[in-house]
Amino acid sequence: MDVLGAVRFPIDYSDRKPLGRTGEELPAIGIGTYGIRDYRAAEEALARAVELGLNLIDTAEMYDSGRAEELVGRVARRVGRDNVFVTTKLLPSHFVECERVVKAAKSSLKRLGMDVVDLVLIHWPNPGVPIHLQIRCLERLASLGLARYIGVSNFDANQLAEALVSTKRHEIVVDQVKYSPLDRRAEEGLLDMCMARGVTLQAYTPLERGAVVNNTVLKKIAQRYGKTPVQVALNYLISRPSVVAIPKTERVERVEEFHGALGWRLDKADIALIERLF
Fold first, then answer.
1. How far apart are CA 16 and CA 28, in angstroms?
2. Is 225 a known active-site residue?
3. Which of 13, 34, 39, 63 is catalytic?
4. Rounded CA gap, 267 and 248, in Å?
5. What's the CATH code of the domain at 259?
6. Would you list the DSSP string of 84-121?
7. CA–CA distance, 85 with 83 (Å, rounded to integer)
8. Residue 16 falls within a domain, yes or no?
9. Number of domains in the chain
10. Tens digit of pLDDT for each residue in 119-136?
11. Which of 42, 106, 110, 264 could form a disulfide with 250 if both were Cys (CB 3.0 to 4.6 A apart)?
């Protein structure tokens, strides 16, 4: 950027994001469940998130060997299944054969205590299997009614492009990748593709495991808005069209902090400052 105040992407002022081209919307901020240590506290935090409207919960079969899925299932029963949007991810090792993928999905659903999950993703691409075959197995889950929608995770722009042209009956609605103000590799082509092709980009590790709290630029910007560096980091991400942030927490007070990232936007000059960090 040559001019302070110029930004690379249009600013999205909405706190509701489209889910691909489905016509359905998601909150701009959801909650992840990787690395949970205190499951009782995490259940309270997730229930509070749903109460605040942050009702997208992300999990995976590999998180604590399925315990995270069991937690999400308890939360869904507590708050009401229709009040939460649940995403889970399946290991790429299953995607050598569609029946193995179906079996894995059914195991996830059993742990979740659900007949159907809202969204299922390949956790990362299997390098030993052509992408079009992996997508065929993913589509099978939607065709069988085990998942409402399908998507991918950790697919780069080229892999996503191949996945998108591989679909026959069901669209890829999400690509979930690492993305934060301190790691903006997703802005190097992938975000442009998602915006152009109607794919929602879900940003995991958006707070860099707490590192954003100590970033000097984010701290200075936060002071000007009366916000926290965490809220500034999340606001930067959700200011991008097509981006949903999914930070992880097991603390109610942190959920409430996440909620404070909604309802306002950084101005263009401050977005430009963050774009110049690296």
1. 5
2. no
3. 63
4. 26
5. 3.20.20.100
6. -EEEEEE-GGGGGSHHHHHHHHHHHHHHHT-S-EEEEE
7. 7
8. no
9. 1
10. 999 999 999 999 999 999
11. 42
